[in-house]
Write a structure and sequence with these properties.
Layout: H1 5-27, H2 37-41, E1 55-58, E2 62-65, E3 68-69, H3 78-87, H4 93-105, H5 111-119, H6 126-136, H7 142-149, H8 157-182, H9 197-205, H10 213-224, H11 233-243, H12 248-259, H13 267-281, H14 288-300, H15 318-330, H16 335-354, H17 365-374, H18 383-405, H19 417-425
Antiparallel strand pairs: 1-2, 2-3
Helix pairs in contact: 3-18, 4-8, 5-6, 5-8, 6-8, 6-12, 7-8, 8-9, 8-18, 9-10, 10-15, 10-18, 11-12, 11-18, 12-18, 13-16, 13-17, 14-16, 15-17, 16-17
The chain binds carboxymethyldethia coenzyme *A.
The site of carboxymethyldethia coenzyme *A has 20 residues, from loops.
Length: 426
């Protein structure tokens, strides 16, 4: 008989715990990183100071989930990815079916969440709405309840997984509600009993199905954004908050607040804006020369070109390539998509000439907006919400793993500038 996600993970746990104990007790003194002054000032870039097993980002390869390059996973659906992130394996067909059913059993959004969202100012950013809704749902936390009752440390992961299922089971419904409330799209569309997570999200948004292509695009979108190892702002924030034993609702809401920053997830909304501005300025699909000029104008005015550069990657983000391949299959004549494709041919050269960005290549955000726009999601401000729905998978699975392995509360040592000068003089 097919096993549930909880049963599958529980069966793996003794080995994972044993390995963690061995690492700590036998190899705890092995050094893995040295820290320079530049790293302490520069966002701790490159310092190896935390463990994350859900995925790694190789500078020359991009995202690898549990040993599988993301390009090998583009045909999978997000529910399979969630399972993979947590357990290291893909579910078989029966396990997937059972998991989808279980997820739906966590799908009810309490009415007070809708009341909170409807009471928010009309000018609230959709990300502020999503994060507030997740935080409001903290009231449902199984972890908080069990912790108050006095559960043992060994059991922490169980209600954390339950909370994770509740967040994962509702976040797409909440996100669709945010869209319909914020943009006055009419009544909320209830979740379906039959559709998969991504297909249901597309339907609840109220997007035209375009013969099933919209759901296909959504599956790809939610799969590609699922995780990006542990040190990025949202994952790291979620981890830090969770390390204080704050429950999944606190931790994920905090992580999403980080995703709302323009240097992180919000770049998503800025990218397509930049592309459309270019089209607007030049009255239609711009020529290579016009893109070059506009790129320089952006850089010379002290702004970044959104969607390009990365803190870790040093090649074209494979997730950009996956979106590009999808666009070439389904919308190759679309002028916005064509412009994104042309920008890809020009901007890296400009950034190389500019000489500042360590990585002149596109990241995930450079291409996704054109697809969303084509399938009817024209409100850029909303784009980071889609990113969030997907990224919650990475944050939640990292959280469950850390609870299960008893990862310590985060508390790196900060130093004063005076101390730095002292070290330099030594
Ligand atoms: N356009 C212009 N300048 C850029 C640039 C870009 N796309 N990317 C990097 N640079 C500049 C940096 O601003 C920095 O300038 P200063 O020295 O004046 O501060 C310099 O190049 C060196 O930066 P870096 O080491 O290459 O990049 P960082 O690790 O500091 O930052 C990132 C990475 C993503 C914040 C940066 O490339 C950027 O701002 N890109 C545009 C925004 C974006 O697309 N963000 C989405 C990233 C994906 C995600 O996390 O969601």
């Amino acid at each position: 008989m097919a096993k549930t996600l909880k049963e599958t993970f529980a069966a793996q746990l003794p080995k994972l715990r044993e390995e963690r104990v061995t690492l700590l007790k036998k190899h705890g003194d092995v050094g893995i990183s040295q820290v320079s002054v530049a790293q302490a000032i520069g966002g701790m870039r490159g310092i190896k100071g935390m463990v994350c097993d859900t995925s790694v980002v190789e500078p020359d390869k991009g995202l690898i989930i549990r040993g599988r390059p993301i390009m090998d996973l583009v045909d999978k659906i997000p529910e399979e990815i969630f399972w993979l992130l947590l357990t290291g394996d893909l579910p078989d067909a029966d396990e997937l079916k059972l998991f989808q059913k279980e997820l739906k059993s966590y799908g009810e959004v309490p009415n007070y969440v809708w009341k909170v969202l409807k009471a928010m100012p009309k000018t609230s950013h959709p990300m502020a709405m999503l994060d507030t809704a997740i935080l409001a749902m903290e009231n449902e936390s199984a972890f908080r309840e069990r912790y108050t009752e006095g559960m043992t440390k060994m059991d922490y992961w169980e209600p954390t997984l339950e909370d994770a299922m509740r967040v994962m089971g509702t976040i797409h419904t909440i996100a669709a509600g945010v869209y319909r409330i914020h943009y006055k799209k009419g009544d909320l569309i209830p979740p379906s009993k039959k559709l998969d997570w991504a297909g249901d999200y597309a339907k609840m948004l109220g997007l035209p199905p375009k013969k099933g292509e919209t759901a296909k695009m959504m599956r790809l979108y939610l799969t590609l954004h699922c995780d990006h190892e542990g040190g990025n702002v949202s994952a790291n924030t979620c981890h830090t908050v969770g390390s204080a034993l704050s429950d999944a609702f606190y931790a994920v809401s905090a992580g999403l607040n980080g995703l709302a920053g323009p240097l992180h997830g919000l770049a998503n909304q800025e990218c397509l804006n930049w592309v459309l501005e270019t089209m607007d300025k030049f009255g239609g699909a711009p020529s290579d020369e016009q893109i070059r000029d506009y790129a320089w104008e952006t850089l010379n005015s002290g702004k970044v070109i959104p969607g390009y550069g990365h803190a870790v990657l040093r090649v074209t983000d494979p997730r950009f390539s996956a979106f590009n391949a999808f666009g070439k299959t389904y919308m190759k004549k679309d002028p916005v998509f064509q412009t994104v494709d042309r920008v890809f041919n020009i901007v890296p050269e400009v950034l190389k000439e500019h000489g500042k960005a360590k990585n002149p290549w596109p990241n995930v955000d450079a291409g996704s907006g054109a697809l969303l726009y084509y399938y009817g999601l024209k409100e850029f401000q909303y784009y980071t919400v889609l990113f969030s729905v997907s990224r919650s998978m990475g944050m939640l699975t990292q959280l469950v793993l850390n609870r299960a392995l008893g990862t310590a509360i985060t508390r790196p040592k900060s130093v004063s500038s005076e101390w730095l000068w002292g070290q330099i003089k030594k």
